[in-house]
Amino acid sequence: MTKPEIFAVVREQLLSVIPDLDPDRIVLQMGLRDLGANSVDRGDILMQTLEAMGLNVPLHQLASVKNIGELVDALHARQSDR
Q: Residues 6, 44, 29, 62: is their CA dihedral positive or negative?
């Protein structure tokens, strides 16, 4: 998947977990917490994104990402490792 495709998956999962979120706020520079995702929401978003992408990555390996852009970069790199 390309980075824009991965971003689309993350965006879709964000909106499924936080349906009241304004889609226009979802940009690469925003963090999940900044968008109103609590710790359970963030875990759900990550797990659903990994499942949608067919990846098996331990969540602790993604704990250091600061925003959606870094998450997209990390997921893009992980899919190359398969």
A: negative
- pLDDT (tens digit, 9 = 90+) per residue, 40-64? 999 999 999 999 999 998 988 898 9
CATH number reported for the structural domain that contains residue 24 in this entry: 1.10.1200.10
Number of domains in the chain: 1
| Closest to 7 in 3D by CA, of 56, 61, 76 | 76
Q: Give me the domain span that covers residue 66.
A: 3-80
pTM listed for this prediction:
0.91
Measure Cα distances from 12 to 17, 39, 46, 81 in Å: 9, 18, 11, 24
**Beta-carbon neighbour count of residue 75 at 10 Å?**
23
CA distance 31 to 38: 11
